[in-house]
TrEMBL record:
Classification via Pfam families: F-box, FBD, LRR_2, LRR_At5g56370
Transmembrane feature ranges: none
Record Gene3D superfamilies: 1.20.1280.50, Ribonuclease Inhibitor
Domain annotation F-box: ranges: 14-50
Name by which UniProt lists this protein: F-box/FBD/LRR-repeat protein
Length: 391
């Protein structure tokens, strides 16, 4: 072996990493920070543009003092001629301090490259629209200033994915969800202390196999029950309504009649002491209800509320088979339970279903009814099949 051959052999052995294929080198670089990855471009001609093929990137506009340098760098990385799949893209960007239109084009470029993990943080982003993307881990998204969010045909990893995304927007006021007919959501859970307007559309609701849970106490009653939205949710088969939203519905009942939820089969509603009297109106809007769970945080002791003041809801006459009444049960220092006040109201509530539920098969009451369970069982029932049980 001559001298030159020996030198070449030693060089190959001493730089084994350069002998690796580009695809493997890019995977290795993806474990580094973007800054470290870019620094490898000075190693040789081969490494000069290798960082552009790395499937991950972490970008913080605050670490690029000259704005033109930052813009040039992002434009180059997300260039139209680069169609490589992105595994992870972390982005911190101040829209108002930079070009908002360019920001939109970058997001579109990231989506086109089929990004798997997209972490976005913006302190000033107010309007967010996502169309035909897949969301997996939204807990990595921080959107403290987003007020308007439009989700069009978005696919979600799980029910909690959508719920977490909404929770990441603490000042959210307007939410529009257009569901993908192929999404796997079982429950659309909307929890927001700030939400004022909520619209939802989905053709798949015609299948009557999905539920909506709403906990938005300041949701405007007229906005919540606008004609288009009422038509859409009229095909929901299962619904969970939180106490704050029930109060909004109660206010709406004082203005005009509730829309009909003709496909609603299962209802779970929570009531505060100020809103439980609107129960007949709520049941009247659910003519084909099969089962209902009603939770009351407290019931008034007096009997001034007349549940028989309105006509008997259609569901009580024809379809309602299962009723579950729940009220709190307080435990004192001696660990002995005692029901909250409202004995007469609880009795009236139980009698209302027993005396009017023509199709009723089971009335279940919580342990807080223990002091009147025998009286409840002695009430005459319109349904001969009905039994009273305590859980």
């Amino acid at each position: 072996m001559d001298f030159q051959t020996s030198v070449n052999e030693k060089q190959r052995n001493s730089d084994r990493i350069s002998n690796l294929p580009d695809s493997l080198l890019c995977q290795i670089l993806s474990e580094l920070s973007t800054k470290e990855s870019v620094c490898t471009s000075v190693l040789s001609k081969r490494w000069r543009h290798l960082y552009l093929q790395v499937p991950t990137m972490d970008l913080d506009c605050n670490k690029f003092p000259p704005d033109d340098v930052f813009v040039s760098f992002v434009d180059r990385f997300l260039g139209s001629d680069n169609h490589q799949h992105l595994n992870r893209f972390n982005f911190i960007y101040d829209v108002y301090d930079h070009d908002a239109s360019r920001f939109k084009s970058w997001i579109n470029a990231v989506v086109r490259r089929r990004v798997s993990h997209f972490n976005l943080h913006s302190e000033t982003l107010v309007n967010l629209q996502l169309c035909r993307v897949f969301l997996n881990h939204p807990e990595s998204i921080s959107l403290p200033c987003v007020k308007n969010m439009h989700l069009d045909m978005v696919a979600y990893h799980a029910d909690s994915t959508l719920e977490t995304l909404i929770a990441s927007c603490p000042v959210l006021e307007e939410l529009t969800i257009i569901r993908d007919p192929n999404d796997l959501l079982e429950v659309v859970c909307v929890r927001s202390r700030s939400l004022k307007s909520f619209k939802m559309e989905s053709e798949r609701w015609e299948c009557n196999d999905h539920a909506v849970a709403i906990d938005s106490p300041i949701l405007k009653s007229r906005g919540f029950f606008e004609n288009n939205y009422a038509r859409k949710i009229s095909t929901v088969g299962n619904m969970y309504i939180f106490a704050g939203t029930v109060e909004v519905i109660h206010e709406f009942c004082e203005i005009e009649q509730l829309p009909q939820f003709s496909s609603l089969s299962h209802l779970h509603a929570c009531f505060r002491v100020t809103s439980w009297e609107m129960l007949p109106n709520l049941l009247e809007s659910c003519p084909n209800l099969h089962s209902v769970i009603l939770e009351f945080d407290c019931l008034p002791e007096t009997e001034h509320i007349d549940l028989s003041a309105v006509s008997v809801p259609q569901c009580l006459l024809s379809s309602l088979e299962l009723v579950h009444l729940k009220t709190p049960y307080v435990v004192n220092m001696q660990r002995e339970g005692r029901p909250l006040t409202g004995t007469s109201s609880k009795m009236k509530l139980a009698k209302y279903f027993l005396e009017n539920g023509a199709a009723l098969k089971t009335l279940t009451v919580s342990a807080s009814f223990c002091n009147i369970i025998n009286k409840i069982k002695s009430v005459s029932r319109i349904s001969s099949q009905c039994e009273v049980v305590m859980d």
